[in-house]
Design a protein that fits this description.
Length: 139
């Protein structure tokens, strides 16, 4: 009985053997010949997209990994709370995408990036509020 979820790959076995043996030129030869390591699927009307190649990672993923998944917490820590659903979502994804990264370290990386990205806006709001004159209460 055939499995319907099974995907059919068009693979040149000789080139694959060379790649496994460490011949990087064979990998280039595969991509130059129009071969792909992705399953033979096309776009459908339902909006399903063709799968990405199985080797390497897209530049966006590499940038994300460097930005959020590489840094580790250092120094003194403080306890803080996040919503349980958010914690569970992060805790469910991290073991797969970054097994060595803890939830607090990931949250720290994301928050750090947010503060860097919006530094000018946050400073502007702070300066606007901090320079307001205090209210003079009538006596």
């Amino acid at each position: 009985m055939a499995n319907r979820n099974r995907k059919i790959y068009d693979v040149d076995e000789d080139v694959l053997k060379r790649v496994v043996a460490g011949d990087t030129a064979a990998l280039e030869e595969m991509t130059d010949n129009g071969a792909s390591l992705s399953p033979q699927r096309k776009d459908t009307k339902d909006g399903e997209k063709e799968m990405k190649p199985l080797y390497g990672a897209p530049p966006e993923q590499e940038a994300y990994r460097k930005r959020f998944l590489a840094e580790r917490l250092k120094g003194t820590r403080r306890q803080t709370y996040i919503h349980d659903a958010l914690y569970r979502a992060i805790a469910g994804v991290l073991p797969v995408i970054a097994p060595d990264l803890s939830v607090p370290a990931f949250v720290n990386n994301v928050l750090s990036d947010h503060l860097k990205q919006y530094e000018e806006i946050i400073n502007g709001i702070y300066n606007e509020k901090a320079t307001q004159k205090p209210i003079q209460w009538k006596k």
